[in-house]
Amino acid sequence: MAVSGKVASFRLPPLPTIGEIIKLYNLRAEKQLSQNFLLDMRLTDKIVRQAGSLRGTHVCEVGPGPGGLTRSVLNAGASEVFVVEKDTRFIPGLQLLAEAAPGKVRIVHGDILTYKMENAFPKHLSKQWEDDPPDIHIIGNLPFSVATPLIVKWLKSISNRAGPFAYGRTRLTLTFQQEVAERLSASTGSRQRSRLSIMAQYLCNVRSCFTIPGRAFVPKPKVDVGVVHFTPLVVPKINQPFEVVEKVVKNVFQFRRKYCRRGIEMLFPEARRLELAEQMLRRADVDPTLRPTELSIPHFSSLSDAYSELCAEHPGLLDYEFRDELSQKRKSKSTHHSKSHVNVEGENKR
Predict the structure, then answer these.
(1) Are 71 and 96 in contact (CB under 8 A)?
(2) What is the pLDDT of residue 79?
(3) What's the confidence (pLDDT) of residue 240?
(4) How high is the pLDDT of residue 4?
(5) I need a labelling partner for 61 at 20 to 30 A (CA). Which of 4, 254, 299, 317 fits?
(6) CA 228 to CA 201: how far, in whole Å?
(7) Which residues of the chain have pLDDT under 50?
(8) Is the peptide bond before 219 cis (omega within 30 degrees of 0)?
(9) How many whole angstroms separate alpha carbon 19 and alpha carbon 54?
(10) In terms of C-beta distances under 8 Å and separation of at least 24 residues, what long-range contacts does 239-246 make, across chains too?
């Protein structure tokens, strides 16, 4: 009997369920690591489907935990699953899975935030940036505490074509706290529009896939979870270094309820703040009374270009941080106050 083309060529042999693995190895989700286990294989299969066809691909899974999502990736036909797990308690259960899928599971005990991924995959998988994405995927049910710093790190790597993106436009399918998932995909003018919306969307095609109710996890988190898929763009929508874009976006959104002019002013030293902010807005042709959430990516592109021009004209401007200037002023005031106090005491003694 012929096997249907839709059926993966590899299926895992019968194994203990994820619930049984958790009991077998006495695994408990650590609250301080914001761990939540997903036991329903229908949901892990659904996450994996958002990545597209995995037949014959190489997958890096972040934080596999007891291995539920890993099983779904293997059953989807991946050639190899490379798992990065920080928590040693999960390694024995993952080794059991590796034995059930000989040559298909590679386990790395490490922290994904510091792990170097430039050499994680075979070199022959590399593609030119302009080509279709390589047969490499990153998939993960991320702990909430790691998810935001990790996606920001990877967005920077996309901009620099480094890390897992040294192989080309590697795709990502990841879980986030629902609010973060909404921010990542939020459109111009929406309530959830944020710094993350701009940073993700200027570099990637971002697709919000579906929501997993909190009750599906063990232990149940207080929030629902969103699955988001990222495909890096061939040409970023803003043609400036990541650091320039990040600084402009971060400053604008720190006063999200004010006019955008307020955040832009903080890019400049106090002595020339109003003058340079006005120049930047004029060069970018952006209405200073727009709120941050109302600014589109083309707006941010124009603002980043204008800021870059001003940085070229004023050496040292890119390194300026208004908080450093504020801190310096407070120190000066404190020192002046202390000296005044000493002088007064001296006068009184006379």
Answers:
(1) no
(2) 97
(3) 98
(4) 41
(5) 4
(6) 12
(7) 1-8, 344
(8) yes
(9) 25
(10) 239/301, 239/305, 240/301, 240/304, 240/305, 240/308, 241/159, 242/155, 242/156, 242/159, 242/160, 243/318, 244/304, 244/307, 244/308, 244/311, 244/318, 245/198, 245/199, 245/202, 245/300, 245/304, 246/156, 246/199
Which residues lie below 8 Å from residue 84, measured CB to CB, with a gap of 6+?
60, 61, 62, 63, 108, 110, 111, 112, 115
The enclosing H or E element of 82 equals strand 80-85
Please check whether residue 65 is in contact with residue 85, taking contact to mean a CB–CB distance below 8 angstroms.
Answer: yes
- What is d(CA 16, CA 32) in angstroms, rounded to the nearest whole number? 27
Please report how many Cα atoms fall inside a 13 Å half-sphere around the Cα of residue 193, on the Cβ side: 19
With 0-12 / 13-18 / 19 or more C-beta atoms within 10 angstroms meaning exposed / middle / buried, residue 20 is exposed
In DSSP terms, 45 is beta-bridged to none
Beta strands 171-177 and 37-38 are unpaired
pLDDT for the residue numbered 175: 97
Q: How many CB atoms lie within 10 A of CB 74?
A: 25
Taking alpha carbons only, the member of 123, 150, 128, 126 closest to residue 230 is: 150
Which among 171, 172, 181 has a CA at the least distance from the CA of 211? 181
Q: How far apart are CA 255 and CA 90, in angstroms?
A: 42
- Asked if 106 contacts 82 with a C-beta cutoff of 8 angstroms, the reply is yes
- Cα–Cα distance for residue pair 320/302, rounded to 1 Å: 20
How far apart CA 214 and CA 34 sit, in angstroms, is 13
Return the pLDDT at 306: 98
- Burial of 165 by CB count in 10 Å (0-12 exposed, 13-18 middle, 19+ buried)? buried
